[in-house]
Amino acid sequence: MLARTRMNFMDASYLLMESRDRPMHVATLLIYSLPANAGPDFIQRLVTGLQLSTEFVEPFSLRLKNPVLKIALPIWMEDFDLDLEYHVRHSALPYPGGERELGVLVSRLHSNPMDFNRPLWEYHIIEGLERDRFAIYFKMHHSLVDGIAGVRMLQRSMSTRAEDIDTPALWSARRDDAIDSSSDTPDRWDLLESFGGGLRAASHVAKGLFDLAQAVYDSKNPSKLPFQAPVSILNHRIHSQRRFATQTYEFARIRALAKKAECTINDIVLALCSGALRRFLKELGALPGRSLTAGIPVSLRTPDDQAAGPAISFIIADLATNVADPARRLAVICASTRRTKGLMQGMPRDSIEKFSAALMMPYTLQMLAGLEGRTRPVCNLTISNVPGPKEHLYFRGARLEAMYPVSAVTHGQALNITCYSYADTLSFGFAGCRDTLPRMQRLAVFAGEALEELEQVLLGKSVKSK
Questions:
Q1: Closest listed residue to residue 311, CA positions, set 88, 82, 147
Q2: Which of 165, 235, 158 is nearest to 389 (CA)?
Q3: Measured between alpha carbons, how far is 274 from 269 in angstroms, rounded to an integer?
Q4: How far is it, in rounded angstroms, from Cα 17 to Cα 10?
Q5: pLDDT of 6 strictly over 70
Q6: Given 2, 173, 203, 424, which residue has the most CB atoms within 10 angstroms?
Q7: Element (H, E) at 295
Q8: How many CB atoms lie within 10 A of CB 262?
Q9: Is-cis flag, bond preceding 230, omega within 30?
Q10: Biggest alpha carbon distance in the chain?
Q11: Which residues are catalytic?
């Protein structure tokens, strides 16, 4: 008999949000250079070998028991009889394919909904990239994976050594953590401890919400609440087709700015996004007079947590898009994130989860009522920063040159900006609704200009001539 697992509410919410216009899968685009000794049949042999890799680990072996039933909490069932010719696909760009051609293909692949009668993942191998490169576009439903879990999955299928050509297929790579075989049935002392933990969590949550609510009555409080965002062109209903753009920077440039400004890497990422959005919306004549706000996913994973499934909390940050001066804009962003993160400081993980659930409850009700994109947004967009591998990686002899996140967008938030760190780089993925953002590549260009602007203001570097 197949094993069954009922998913929690957070995971199930991504399934409940699924629709034709709003597919809720996330993806990663990986760019590889061919091994020096690769023959003309390297890609075909790679595809064939992967399609013969029929050992599956969770979550690749999970499918929905009732894919069309959207009541109660859905149930996962194990399925080890997968059609790998369906899940592992081979595509080619007209040679020599450049970044633009690859972006067009990824936009189309990301627009396609997944088949809910099968395990919810796809693995696309794309050949024909210029300079002897190929790409892999891997997507999985958000109910099965978050950003950090996805990066760790990919990392387990690669090696730090080019000569290691027997690395496992992504869906066969096992986690390093041991399975706990202890009983799942708690004794009475566990129940008492759980009850006491619930009371402590309630106390933490109540205090955090009270402190946050003071921002409504104090104009000098930098904290931001849900629904304090202005309505912008990003915050209406979306359609099914997507656009995708990328940008990569040397991580040392980001680190130097964070050190000079005495802030976090995440704060610099937000400042780059803010500067880009300010110029992008201003160019369109659509910059709101009030500042945009961003939802920031905060990982709850420990460094050794390799489990699948989402494990994230959220905060809301002021992007200061109504501030012209880049240094002052960064200062406002830092004050906002520092204040909001401070509310969760010292909270145990279960308290943070409950605090986030309470904070986002109005959005949940808005979603269930189908009002997203029709009323004031909970925030204007989502921006996240996912830490990736620090060393260069190889997949069966091919060197990983870059990795880009390809995230989901939703009604009321037509743009998602996510970045991955990898080796000595920080790579941004801009995913958006095709109809809302007809010139999204401009946003990626403006992010680069925002970086140069901050370097000029904080480090005294001259801006390159345009």
A1: 147
A2: 158
A3: 9
A4: 11
A5: no
A6: 173
A7: strand 293-299
A8: 8
A9: no
A10: 70
A11: 142
CB 28 within 8 A of CB 386: no
d(CA 60, CA 79): 9
Q: Of 229, 142, 204, 227, whose CA–CA distance to 356 is shortest?
A: 204
Exposure on the CB side of residue 206, measured as CA atoms within 13 A: 6
For the chain, what's the residue count? 466
Q: Is the dihedral of CA 191, 196, 197, 199 positive or negative?
A: positive
Sign of CA dihedral 147, 401, 107, 433: positive
Please indicate, yes or no, if residue 344 is contained in any of the structural domains. Answer: yes
Query: Residue 294 burial by CB count (10 A; 0-12/13-18/19+): exposed, middle or buried?
Result: buried
CA torsion sign for 350, 416, 129, 389 is negative
Euclidean distance between CA atoms 61 and 55, whole angstroms: 9
End-of-domain residue from the set 172, 192, 222: 172
- Report the pLDDT averaged over residues 341-351: 61
Asked whether the bond before 59 is cis by omega within 30 degrees of 0, the reply is yes
Q: Using one digit for the tens of pLDDT, what is the confidence trace for 183-216?
A: 333 333 333 333 344 444 445 445 544 555 555 5
Q: pLDDT class for 17, splitting at 50, 70, 90?
A: confident
Q: Note whether 15 and 164 are same-domain residues.
A: yes
Name residue 425's beta-bridge partners. Answer: 250, 422
CB neighbour burial string for 135-160, b if at least 16 within 10 angstroms, e if fewer: bbbbbbbbbbbbbbbbbbbbbbbbbe
Instruction: Strand 75-78: give its sheet, edge to edge.
Output: 4-6, 75-78, 62-64
- Are 155 and 240 in the same domain? no
pLDDT band for position 349 (50/70/90)?
low
> Which two tokens mark 199?
């009371």
pTM for the predicted model, two decimal places = 0.85
Two structure tokens written together for 128:
């024909």
Amino acid (1-letter code) at residue 229: A
Number of domains in the chain: 2
Domain containing residue 139: 4-172
Instruction: Tell me what pLDDT residue 159 has.
Output: 96
Q: Is 414 helix (H, G, I), strand (E, B) or coil?
A: coil
Q: For 259-273, how does the pLDDT look when each residue is reduced to its tens digit (9 = 90+)?
A: 999 999 999 999 999
Whether 162 and 207 share a structural domain: no
Amino acid identity of 179? I
Cα–chain center distance at 284: 27
Same domain, 67 and 154: yes
Within 8 A by CB and 6+ apart from 419, the residues are 269, 384, 385, 386, 405, 426, 427, 428, 429
Q: Which residues pair with 383 in a beta bridge?
A: 417
